[in-house]
Design a protein that fits this description.
By secondary structure, the protein is an alpha+beta fold. It is built from 26 helices and 27 strands. Strands 2-1-5-4-3 form a 5-stranded antiparallel β-sheet, with helices on both faces. A 5-stranded antiparallel β-sheet has the order 7-6-10-9-8, sandwiched between helices. The protein has a 5-stranded antiparallel β-sheet with strand order 12-11-15-14-13.
């Protein structure tokens, strides 16, 4: 037939009923090994059997066993398989095949755990004469029998103690050896050996062999067990009687009739010592090289079984621990299919485990319109690196939740594919609580700001009153009148900005982060602080840099106001508050973190230093200064949220806050915010003569008569015909009497009896394409209640003449375009 090809060898391995590690061992034996089904048909054969038959394994499968060694197509009448099948016991037989001499067969049945006959294992070899060769031949047979018998025990074993005890029993009872023991090599300082399993000797006899033994290779031990563990190869004593230095075990073993022994190392996957299997025999020179190789394979199989059971136990413990932790755990394969979820993941998603396993991850992260995976997450998955952040998803009942997630790639050792492990925590309630805490702290800060706001607003009113009265006395001097009225407009703009700051600071709102100059925000805060701080506190500022950061102005005001107000309160007897701005490159963010968490990454930062000459802080206070509700102002009041809210805002901006202080030496807080290269939108200067004009008829409604009069004058100066009303009901009656008379409507939002939106709805019911402008001093605005078809514009009050004129022309132009489109 010739040599078996690599392809044929691969076929043999794939068709073997044995585990892969044992198949390789048996395939390399010189004896022929054949596995048969319960009816005597070949199911697998090793290379030696295929060569003897002259067939590839594919052709041999399905033939009777005699096709290998007898070249027969049918079983002969004297076939030992018939008796083995009838009796279900091991059978040996010998056949004389003429020129090929005598052959010997050993036939062993094997069963499943329920006792059902699965088939037979047959070992066939030329018959050896009754000399030493026969003796060696028989010994190889018994070692092979141990190897075959132990395989079933290792595969079926449920715990480590069971398989090592079964192995010792099989070696003695099935293999015919006199005794066997297994010891483990302790990894402690003494490197002692521990007796784990034995058979054939009692405990005291076996323990006497192991007692006081060490596998330390620095010690000259005469124990072959220690030598086997250290060398990584088997060790044999061929004749115990001929080794007088084999003490202190020699005399005890000879009394038991034992003349030879072999110790076989048990190793882990890296080749490190686990322990050793030692086998004892009554005959001297009992272990041939072939028998030793077979027994070493048995020891290797046992090592493998021990490792598998330990891994299984560790996996079970790990899964049990994972099932108990509070965070949700989800394991997803390369195709996005869920392979594991713990109890917390079930609770977060409100899906049962059975509903999740085997499903795509989209079941717990459904795609929303216009929303997919965050770009940062996609990039992290593409680069094979971990990602952390917040994901907005839905529960089984459709409820929207926010999950703080950490996603890590995991490379599977078997198929080398990348899978993913998600650790998630439902932070929906936490986010709501954080929002409430921020709002509560804003309310406290409003109290701190009230003096400064009153001071600034009184200054603005004084300027308006002063310039107006001066103008009334100089009506004949047109230039002086123009200058004074210009100052009134400037004062009104200051008042408008101040009101917007108050409203934005006090109302809960979504973050609206944009590029802004850090100097402008800092100067605004310091202007307010100068009015709120005692006269004994001097404010010094060095803010002459043009650095830009990506932030929300309200949040940034809150951070600076909280820290600066805290610094001012640290100087009840007066002192100096210094605020300075600079830029700094940060390579290592660890010093920024201190004892506090930070989201900062290396890069360029704007640095805001806020220093005071107050009483300073102890280390104990510094350790807790950013904790929520921690305050040292027991008498003065305060909810202890100011600095914790500031820290939270700065962290969310990717920055950090550091501090240094000593009792009696003041404190310095440093705020680091990442710089941005983006430019803030430019503000166009106010130029009166740029205002566009028109001649259309406008219906104007506002419940404040003064505003109706002032706005009417502005609109008439721009060329428009104006019908002014102070009552929504009156305006509606005039409109319904002549709906085609008006080209545009301007209405206030908040009026008694009817809101601006309700009034606009009545107008639009009569004329769907009528342009409407709604003015509001402060209104929480949502999506238009009229859809995209309505020509509706919202503007904030007070509004400048130019802005109003431009808004009117845009609204009228849209109305003309819609009319032409019809």
């Amino acid at each position: 037939m010739g040599a078996i090809t690599a392809e044929g060898a691969a076929r043999r391995l794939s068709q073997s009923p044995l585990p892969h590690f044992q198949t390789k061992v048996i395939d390399g034996l010189r004896q022929m090994v054949v596995f048969l089904d319960p009816h005597g048909k070949i199911t697998w054969a090793n290379e030696a059997a295929c060569k003897k038959a002259g067939l590839f394994l594919d052709s041999l499968i399905g033939n009777p066993c005699c096709r290998v060694w007898g070249q027969q197509s049918q079983r002969c009448a004297a076939c030992p398989l018939s008796e083995a099948m009838a009796r279900g016991v091991e059978m040996k037989s010998r056949l004389d095949l003429g020129d090929e001499g005598q052959w010997e067969s050993s036939l062993t049945p094997y069963f499943n755990e329920g006792g059902m006959l699965l088939g037979f294992a047959e070992v066939i070899a030329p018959y050896a004469p009754p000399l030493l060769d026969k003796f060696t031949h028989d010994l190889s047979f018994r070692a092979l029998r141990c190897l075959c018998k132990s395989a079933q025990s290792i595969i079926a074993g449920e715990n480590e103690a069971a398989i090592i005890n079964q192995c010792c029993r099989i070696v003695v009872e099935e293999g015919g050896y006199h005794a066997a023991m297994i010891v483990y090599a302790n990894q402690d300082q003494k490197r002692a050996l521990s007796l784990m399993a034995f058979h054939g000797l009692d405990y005291f006899e076996t323990n006497a062999i192991v007692k006081n033994l060490s596998w330390d290779d620095d010690k000259q031990s005469t124990s072959i067990t220690a030598k086997a563990i250290n060398s990584g190869g088997h060790q044999i004593v061929y004749d115990i009687a001929a080794m007088p230095n084999y003490q202190p075990w020699r005399d005890m073993l000879l009394k038991k009739g034992l003349r030879s022994c072999i110790s076989l190392p048990l190793r882990d996957e890296a080749g490190r010592a686990l322990g050793a299997l030692t086998v004892f025999a009554r005959e001297p020179y009992s272990f041939s090289s072939e028998e030793a190789a077979i027994l070493q394979n048995l020891a290797d199989n046992l090592s493998y079984g021990v490792r598998i059971i330990r891994a299984r136990r560790e996996k079970a413990m790990l899964l049990s621990a994972m099932g108990q932790i509070a965070e949700g755990l989800v394991y997803v394969d390369k195709d996005g299919v869920i392979g594991y979820v713990n109890k917390a993941a079930e609770e977060i998603s409100q899906f049962d485990k059975e509903e999740l396993l085997g499903c795509h991850y989209s079941i717990i992260y459904p795609k929303r319109p216009g929303q997919g995976l965050p770009e940062s997450l996609k990039q992290a998955l593409k680069e094979g690196r971990p990602w952390s952040g917040r994901l907005t998803t839905s529960r089984k009942n459709g409820q929207t939740i926010v999950v703080e997630a950490n996603i890590s790639p995991v490379t599977n050792e078997i198929d080398k594919d990348t899978h993913y492990f998600l650790v998630g925590k439902d932070v929906t309630a936490q986010i709501a609580l954080e929002a409430r805490l921020r709002q509560a702290q804003k309310m406290e800060a409003i109290g701190t700001l009230s003096r400064g706001i009153a001071h600034d607003f009184n200054n603005i009113l004084a300027a308006i009153m002063g310039f107006t009265e001066a103008s009334l006395g100089r009506l004949d001097d047109r230039q002086a009148l123009a200058n004074n009225l210009g100052e009134v407009v400037t004062a009104c703009e200051r008042a408008q900005i101040l009101v917007r700051q108050i409203l934005s600071f006090s109302k809960p709102s979504e973050r609206n982060r944009a590029p802004m100059k850090i100097k402008a925000v800092t100067d605004e805060v310091l202007n307010m602080l100068r009015a709120t701080l005692p006269a004994t506190v001097e404010v010094q500022a060095n803010t002459d840099i043009e650095s830009r950061v990506m932030a929300d102005s309200t949040e940034l005001h809150q951070v600076l106001m909280n820290i600066c107000a805290n610094a001012g309160q640290a100087m009840p007897g007066g002192g100096v508050l210094r605020v300075s701005l600079s830029e700094q490159t940060v390579v290592d963010v660890e010093p920024l973190a201190g004892i506090h968490f930070t989201n900062a990454r290396p890069g360029r930062f704007a640095r805001i230093d806020i220093a005071d000459t107050g009483h300073g802080m102890s280390q104990e206070t510094m350790d807790r200064v950013f904790d929520p509700f921690f305050t040292t102002k027991q008498k003065a009041g305060g909810n202890g949220l100011g600095l914790s809210v500031a820290m939270g805002i700065v962290n969310s901006l990717g920055g950090a806050v550091t501090m240094r202080s000593k009792p009696g030496q003041g404190s310095v807080f440093s705020v680091f915010l990442p710089l941005t290269q983006e430019m803030p939108p430019e503000e166009k200067p106010y130029v009166v003569d740029q205002a566009p004009v028109g001649s259309e008829t406008i219906l104007l409604i506002d419940d404040e008569p003064q505003l109706v009069d002032a706005t009417t004058m502005i609109l008439e100066d721009l060329g428009y015909q104006v019908v002014g009303k102070t009552s929504p009901e009156s305006a509606l009656r005039d409109f319904n009497s002549s709906p085609e008379l008006f080209d545009l409507v301007i209405t206030d939002m908040t009026m008694p009896g009817m809101t601006g939106e309700e009034l606009a709805r009545n107008f639009l019911n009569a004329r769907p394409r009528l342009p409407v402008i709604i003015l509001s001093g402060y209104h929480k605005r949502g999506p238009s209640p009229f859809g995209n078809l309505a020509n509706l514009t919202y503007l904030d009050k007070p509004i400048r003449r130019l802005d109003l004129a431009q808004a009117i022309r845009r609204a009228l132009s849209r109305a003309d375009e819609n009319l032409r489109a019809r």
